[in-house]
Amino acid sequence: MDLRVKRTRTSITNAFIELRSKKPLEKITIKELADAAFINKATFYQHYRDIYDLSESMETELVNNIVRSIPHPDTLIDNPGRATLEISEAMMSQTALLQILFSGSRQTIMVDRLEQAIRGQILKKHPEYENDLEKEILITFLIRGNFYAFFKHSPANPQDTIQILAQYSAKAGGTFGASD
Questions:
Q1: pTM reported for the whole predicted model
Q2: Buried b (16+ CB within 10 A) or exposed e, 23-62
Q3: Would you state the pLDDT for residue 11?
Q4: HEC string of 90-130?
Q5: Fewer Cβ in 10 A, N or C end of the chain?
Q6: What is the separation, in whole angstroms, between the first and last Cα of the chain?
Q7: Where is 146: in which H helix or E strand?
Q8: How confident is the model at residue 175 (pLDDT cuts 50, 70, 90)?
Q9: Rounded to an integer, what distance in angstroms lies between the CA atom of residue 72 and that of residue 103?
Q10: Average of pLDDT values for 83-102?
């Protein structure tokens, strides 16, 4: 990628993160973003269709980075305690950006994307799990339940929260012979 293009995109994303940390996505204008990034509106449109395209691009990149940093995302059913630890630690390493990009109305989008990405990893290794209602429910339960519990309780004590979630996940997965 051309260095100028890279600098422009970095400037746009940094300005977006700064604005997004202060206001909802729906309230950010292209003019405001362009001014903050020291570019003109036409330059913005050379890179993104609109503010939602930029947001979606950044959200997708963040979720992909989180899933790539999970050593064994495909073990959620086989070893839900360990997988929960790994997923929680991966999310915790990106907490600040997660809270900015997926605040407000965007929070449900995050958990949808995370579930879809992890489910994809699981089905890649275990295609026989596809259309297995019991395993599908367990995947959804573990990912969504852990996600919401993590963000609700981790500000007080993140490490204890992760450990407790891993213990409960191991118990929930016990139906399938999983143990830590």
A1: 0.83
A2: eebeebeeeebbebbebeeeebeeebeebeebbbbbbeeb
A3: 97
A4: HHHCCHHHHHHHCCHHHHHHHHHHHHHHHHHHHHHHCHHHC
A5: N
A6: 45
A7: helix 133-153
A8: low
A9: 27
A10: 89
